[in-house]
Amino acid sequence: MSRNLLLASYPKSGNTWLRIFLANFCSDGPDPVDINALDDMRPSSLVVFEEAIGVEPTAFSDEEIDLFRPEVYRYLARTGKTKSFLKVHDSFRMNSAGEPVIPADAVEGAVYIVRNPLDVAISLAHHEGESVDYVIDTIMARYYSPRRRFLFGQIRQHFFPWGQHVLSWVDQTAIPVHVVRYEDMLARPDEVFAGIIGFCGIPPDTTRISCAIEKSSFERVRQQEINRGFREKSPDARAFFRQGKAGTWRDVLSQSQVERVVSSHGAVMERFGYLP
After folding, report:
1. 155 closest CA partner among 30, 68, 84
2. By the 8 A CB rule, do 10 and 166 touch?
3. What is the mean pLDDT of residues 8-29?
4. Residue 210: pLDDT over 60
5. Which percentage of the chain shows pLDDT scores above 90?
6. Is domain 4-116+149-230 given the CATH code 3.40.50.300 in the classification?
7. Phi and psi for 175 in degrees, rounded to 5?
8. Are 51 and 70 in contact (CB under 8 A)?
9. Are the C-beta atoms of 68 and 60 separated by less than 8 Å?
């Protein structure tokens, strides 16, 4: 049975960029991978759920679905490749039976990406087609995904408010976790991606890592989206790959918006170096 590696994060924190890098690193081909051909075996997929359980998830409530989800991860471990990377936006949490929704016996570990919530708010607002105020006061402060159930072929994922989402992953001890900051991925990509590759149990080849980083650059993936579109883009967003920068909040958010984010998530922001 394979033991999958999770790529976990709060939405709009760099998860897709990491998936693209890993796809380029593993393929090691002469050209960048097609962003529309990324492995999409997500644990939240309706198709995967039905394959694993044998029943359509639409027949169940969210609470009932959570009771089945540990078996979905075990199914992916039984049927997946030797090493598969699974994208996860769920918080690390228990179902109503007291069992972790993500069982430790089905995964090898998790790479968790943290991003400054001030930048997350802006990126998520564009992704959802909502105002920044709505994202700060509603989406980043709620328990559920803002999306309706089963939209885009996925089970509704449970986010937790941003700070709780981060802590649910970085402070849990059931699954080994390698924590990286999105800002460090941008500033020191060779070092950070090498650390991720090492955590995944893959021999770190510096030349191969550098080539994969270059093939996964924002300019390259943005151009791919312009030329061919990106199937993971929300219909409410103009583009999935907008800027690929850190610190844009300084030019976009009002003082009131900054204060509301800090008042809700300040302790976790300070822990990860996002506050003076």
Report:
1. 68
2. yes
3. 89
4. yes
5. 55
6. yes
7. -125, 130
8. no
9. yes
Exposure string over 65-96, b if 16+ CB within 10 A, otherwise e: bbebbbebbbbbbeebeeebbbbbbbbbbebe
Torsion angles phi and psi, residue 246, rounded to 5: -120, 145
9, 165 Cβ separation under 8 angstroms: no
| pLDDT, averaged across the chain | 86
Phi-psi region of 20 (alpha: psi -120 to 50; beta: other; left: phi over 0): alpha
Q: How confident is the model at residue 50 (pLDDT cuts 50, 70, 90)?
A: very high
Enumerate the domain spans of the chain: 4-116+149-230
Note whether 146 and 121 are within 8 A (CB): no
Task: Report residue 191 CA to chain centroid gap.
Answer: 20
Lowest-pLDDT range of 54-58, 240-244, 262-266? 240-244
Give the pLDDT score at 140: 86
Range with the poorest average pLDDT among 34-38, 123-127, 196-200, 247-251? 34-38
Give Cβ neighbours of residue 87 (< 8 Å, ≥ 6 apart). 7, 15, 16, 19, 42
* CA–CA gap between residue 182 and residue 203 (Å, rounded): 23
Q: What angle do CA 20, 168, 144 make, to 5 degrees?
A: 80
d(CA 4, CA 22): 14
**Cα 15–chain centre separation:** 4
